[in-house]
């Protein structure tokens, strides 16, 4: 019997940024004794290129660098969604409290003072790398949920890239309304995850279209609750949960699952709903033809006046689509 050797984990990658060559060499050698994969850079510009090419698991960043300072680089990394979750330990010979406050304001996760003591270095690095591993696991869990959601979408050959279109419409509308970055991200995620609960709906119901029996309709109406339950354990999706649960509510209270009325329905859910309805009207299904942009406008305005959709958001959506020429 042949035993397969276990897969070796990738060594955790640390980028050390300092313009002092001696410090780069000493710090690098110390970290390599703990089997870390260490890379070094002597400036913010060189570090930025390395980060873009191969993001590290942690950055040790000197405050004083030629050109851009460590503060500036740290702030840029933390403002960028692609790099904001990389832990940054700022290394400084400055002891003034104001310097540390400035570092915290730039987004630094930890501080080390020069001269660096090896045991303190190892303890800080180990702690932040453990946190990074946990964050990566959450990101992997999100990836699994998104894959499941796209799997649900693929069960209906008529929907095409519905999730991607919906995410685009919703985020563009959110930006037009001046919503914050967290809300915009929630709308994007909601575009992909809103119908995740349909994973438990049988194909014979999911593909049947409009002519559902009362019992089949009860099953279909549970998908927002199911989707919310699946996503609830991930705190990173807390702003998405109301979108998933309430994107089928109606302004007059006739929607599901909770029969909310008017502004009881969360704004993000109302935004996603009007985007969802627009895309559904513009898409051919097994039981209907696709409507033109103008036909969809008339239909949605009628639904808004009937108390189903948020009239203000419908008007904003079409104003957006008209100005951006997104409609065919």
What this model shows, in words?
By secondary structure, this protein is of the alpha/beta class. The chain folds into 2 domains: about 15-135, Response regulator (Rossmann fold); about 155-325, Hypothetical protein af1432 (Orthogonal Bundle). The chain is built from 14 helices and 5 strands. It has helices at about 20-30, 45-55, 70-80, 95-105, 120-155, 160-175, 180-195, 205, 215-220, 225-230, 240-245, 265-280, 295-305, 310-325; strands at about 15, 35-40, 60, 90, 110-115. Helix 6 packs antiparallel against helix 7 (about 180-195), helix 6 packs across helix 14 (about 310-325) and helix 13 (about 295-305) runs antiparallel to helix 14 (about 310-325). The longest helix has about 35 residues, at about 120-155. The radius of gyration is 25 Å and the shape is elongated. The model is unreliable at about 1-10 (pLDDT under 50).
User: Biggest β-sheet, characterized?
Assistant: 5 strands, parallel
Regarding quaternary structure, what we see is single chain
**Tally of helical segments:** 14
Number of strands: 5
Average of pLDDT: 87
What's the overall geometry?
elongated
> CATH superfamily membership of the largest domain, which one?
Hypothetical protein af1432
Helix-and-strand structural type = alpha/beta
The assigned CATH architecture of the largest domain is Orthogonal Bundle
Through-space gap between termini: 63 Å
What strand order characterises the main sheet? Answer: 2-1-3-4-5
The unreliable regions are 1-8
In terms of DSSP E residues, the strand content is 5-15%
CATH topology grouping of the largest domain = Hypothetical protein af1432
Q: For the record, what CATH class of the largest domain applies?
A: Mainly Alpha
Task: Kindly give the count of domains.
Answer: 2
Q: Gyration radius, to the nearest Å? A: 25 Å
Listing every helix as H and every strand as E from the N terminus to the C terminus, the arrangement reads EHEHEHEHEHHHHHHHHHH
Share in helix: 40-55%
């Amino acid at each position: 019997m042949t035993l397969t050797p276990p897969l070796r984990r990738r060594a955790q990658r640390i980028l050390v940024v300092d313009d002092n060559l001696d410090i780069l060499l000493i710090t690098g050698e110390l970290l390599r004794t703990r089997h870390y994969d260490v890379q070094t850079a002597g400036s913010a510009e060189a570090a930025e290129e390395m980060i873009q090419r191969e993001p590290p698991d942690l950055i040790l960043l000197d405050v004083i660098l030629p050109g851009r300072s460590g503060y500036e680089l740290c702030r840029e990394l933390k403002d960028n969604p692609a790099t904001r979750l990389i832990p940054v330990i700022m290394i400084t010979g400055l002891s003034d409290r104001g310097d540390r406050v400035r570092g915290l304001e730039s987004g630094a996760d930890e501080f080390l003072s020069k001269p660096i003591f090896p045991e303190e270095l190892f303890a800080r690095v180990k702690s932040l790398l453990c946190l990074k591993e946990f964050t990566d696991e959450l990101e992997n869990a999100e990836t699994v949920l998104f894959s499941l959601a796209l799997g649900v979408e693929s069960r209906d050959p008529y929907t095409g890239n519905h999730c991607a279109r919906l995410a685009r419409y919703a985020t563009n509308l959110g930006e037009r309304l001046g919503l914050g970055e967290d809300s915009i991200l929630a709308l994007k995620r909601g575009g992909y995850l809103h119908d995740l609960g349909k994973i438990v709906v049988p194909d014979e119901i999911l593909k049947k279209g409009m002519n559902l029996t009362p019992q089949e309709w009860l099953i279909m109406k549970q998908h927002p609750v199911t989707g919310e339950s699946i996503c609830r354990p991930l705190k990173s999706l807390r702003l998405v949960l109301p979108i998933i649960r309430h994107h089928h509510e109606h302004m007059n209270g006739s929607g599901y699952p909770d029969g909310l009325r008017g502004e009881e329905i969360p704004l993000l859910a109302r935004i996603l709903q009007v985007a969802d309805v627009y895309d559904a009207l513009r898409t051919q299904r097994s039981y209907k033809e696709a409507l033109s942009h103008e036909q969809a406008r008339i239909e949605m305005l009628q639904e808004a006046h009937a108390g189903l959709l948020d009239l203000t958001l419908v008007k904003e959506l079409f104003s957006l689509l008209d100005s951006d020429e997104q409609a065919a």
